[in-house]
Design brief:
The protein is α/β, with parallel strands linked by helices. It is built from 13 helices and 14 strands. 44% of the residues lie in helices and 17% in strands. Strand 1, helix 3 and strand 2 form a beta-alpha-beta unit.
Length: 386
């Protein structure tokens, strides 16, 4: 009898998802939905970030509605494509606020687009949970701005700890000339003395550059022990290929901004041996059973693969975590934005895809060093490093 009851509940949950897609959340629940905005780089050069974020937000919304929504009300996602353009991000946020009347916004995908929209959400007091990594998004703290992506502060620390352990002392750095690259470069410079690391050469490249041999040749001239590239696709893949073409044998470290199968696809054979910090989603099967994230990661990966056919990455997890925490924050608020904001700031011990989140008034990211592991690309896949 109990088994039949469980089967009935499972069938009803599945039916709720299907019916919600067909007749809409309002018709299914008989109540006005809580509208949540989503702005992602769904197309363009950053689609490897925005596409899985969009899909993961939709998946999370369906899961929440299948559980009965929030306080008996459904959730509805209104999603726009920024194409990675700050101007389009601003237009999308204004539309979400003035036309769609959303209670909160998830995204954007990038640090530059997030920085462009932050003044708007702060002015009108609509909670925003960014999916971008730049530390300046949450430092200093802005009351209505949060983020789920692991910070570049933690990413740099993970890289430097690995270097320190393996005797790497002199490095070159090559960073992209946008907000993400500048933030990463600043952290690389700031944290280097703490780990006994000397930066012997700094170079930069434009987001649309297609050849970095000149910069790499200058770095080679300083005889570094390793080089760190800080950017997001496609630039880092170009750097990897150029290093191979130049016959450079020192290790190449990348930022967490390339932690997805797309980078391996773009870099091809040149990806072999590259080291980088990443959230744990890429190495779920290699985690010990005692890891608090392992079960959550495995379920997310299985559900995402079943629904979309693969392509699991930590980037989609940023939006998934944002929606799941937002669902908690929405409870009991009646849609009051100030109460939602206050509840987000009280999130504690939330086990997500990107880590275990504990937000505070002083920390609107809520993640610690354990959110990252170091990996190396070997034979076209990810291997955990000591």
């Amino acid at each position: 009898m109990e088994r039949k009851a469980r089967a009935w509940v499972s069938w009803m949950a599945a039916a709720a998802v299907v019916l919600g897609c067909v007749v809409g959340p309002k018709a299914l629940f008989g109540a006005e939905p809580y509208k949540i905005g989503g702005i992602f780089s769904i197309t363009g050069s950053s689609s490897f970030l925005g596409d899985p974020e969009k899909k993961s937000l939709e998946m999370a919304v369906d899961e929440i509605n299948a559980r009965g929504g929030i306080d008996g009300r459904p959730v509805e996602a209104v999603i726009y494509d920024t194409e990675g353009d700050p101007t389009k991000a601003v237009l999308a946020v204004n539309k979400l606020i003035s036309k769609d009347n959303v209670l909160a916004i998830i995204g954007p995908s990038l640090t530059p687009t997030t920085l462009a929209v932050m003044p708007i959400v702060e002015r009108v007091q609509v909670p925003l949970i960014s999916c971008a990594a730049g530390i300046q998004i949450v430092e200093p703290v802005k009351p209505y701005v949060f983020k789920t992506a692991q910070s570049d502060v933690l990413a740099v620390a993970a890289i430097y700890k690995h270097m320190q352990k393996h005797g790497i002392k002199n490095i070159g750095i090559l960073s992209v000339t946008n907000a993400f690259g500048v933030s990463g470069r600043d952290q690389l410079v700031k944290q280097a003395p703490e780990y006994g690391i000397k930066i012997v050469k700094e170079e930069a490249y434009g987001a649309n550059d297609t050849d970095m041999t000149a910069q790499l040749t200058k770095i080679k001239g300083e005889n570094p022990d390793a080089v760190v590239c800080w950017g997001t696709n496609p630039g880092p893949a170009v750097v990897a290929k150029n290093m191979r073409q130049l016959g450079l044998s020192f290790p190449l470290y990348q930022s967490h901004g390339v932690a997805s199968p797309k980078f391996i696809e773009l870099a091809g054979e040149a990806a072999e041996g590259i080291r980088l910090p990443t959230g744990k989603i890429l190495v779920t099967d290699l985690l010990p059973d005692s890891d608090p994230q392992k079960a959550v990661l495995a379920k997310y990966a299985a559900d995402y693969t079943q629904r979309y056919g693969g392509g699991v990455s930590g980037f989609g997890g940023y939006a998934y975590d944002a929606m799941q925490m937002l669902a908690k924050a929405l409870q009991g608020t009646g849609g009051d934005k100030a109460k939602i904001r206050d509840n987000l700031e009280k999130i504690s011990g939330h086990v997500g895809i990107s880590g275990v989140f504990t937000m505070t008034p002083q920390d609107h990211n809520g993640l610690g060093p354990e959110a990252f592991v170091m990996v190396e690309i070997r034979n076209g896949t990810w291997k955990l490093l000591d």
